[in-house]
């Protein structure tokens, strides 16, 4: 068995963090059962996408509500990337928690905000770790980051081989996202794994279609735009194969 990574395509319940966390545990355990070594969730996956209420739903960097995910990471030897509004000092960020087995939790913060997000969030380039997994150097992105080509370009300059965006894109935004990610994967010679929602969040429809692009710019596999599911991608040599699970 080669390296296995996966994207969870979820349907968060607005304002119900407990239910969303339970949903995360389910997908994490399913990923582990299928041999995955990394799972990524969409933007602000733990809360669902929020702006005005983000402070109310925000997480601290050492939030005890995340202890179960930390435990599942270690028990299953699985890197888990999950999103939330994150309070750091006196600023609120759109961020991703990076849980690594038996290691400190890392944080990535969104670098480029959508119009209107600046009223509720700060942007930062200071939290941008590189994750190591076997021979892969991994860098993250969140949603609007992928609208700025300088972001994947910087990931490539940091020797990233695997670029992982967590997004909340509408059905109308997905064609542009697909075009951009195919271009980035080819231009910067990076494999790309993207995770998006389905259903509705923040009163808007999500476009699903979480996918994987190899470093030649080809979309190897993707999920549909309706169902929650898991996109598993396995590396064998320099080639990739996929497995899709819907529930």
The CATH superfamily is known as: Carbon-nitrogen hydrolase
User: Helicity level, as a percent range?
Assistant: 10-25%
**Main structural class:** alpha/beta
CATH architecture assignment name: 4-Layer Sandwich
CATH class: Alpha Beta
What's the number of extended β-strand segments?
A: 16
Query: Poorly predicted ranges (pLDDT <50, ≥5 residues)?
Result: none
The oligomeric state of the chains shown is single chain
- Return the domain count: 1
The sequence of SSEs as H and E is EHEHEHEEEEEHEHEEEEEEE
Describe this structure in words.
Strands 1, 2, 3, 4, 5, 6, 15 and 16 form an 8-stranded mixed sheet that branches. A 6-stranded mixed sheet has the order 7-8-9-10-13-14, covered by helices on one side. It has one domain (about 5-245): 4-Layer Sandwich (Nitrilase/N-carbamoyl-D-aminoacid amidohydrolase). It has helices at about 15-35, 55, 65-75, 150-155, 175-185; strands at about 5-10, 40, 60, 80-90, 90-100, 105-110, 130-135, 135-140, 160-165, 190-195, 200, 205, 210-215, 220, 230-235, 240-245. It starts with a strand and ends with a strand. About 20% of the residues lie in helices and about 35% in strands.
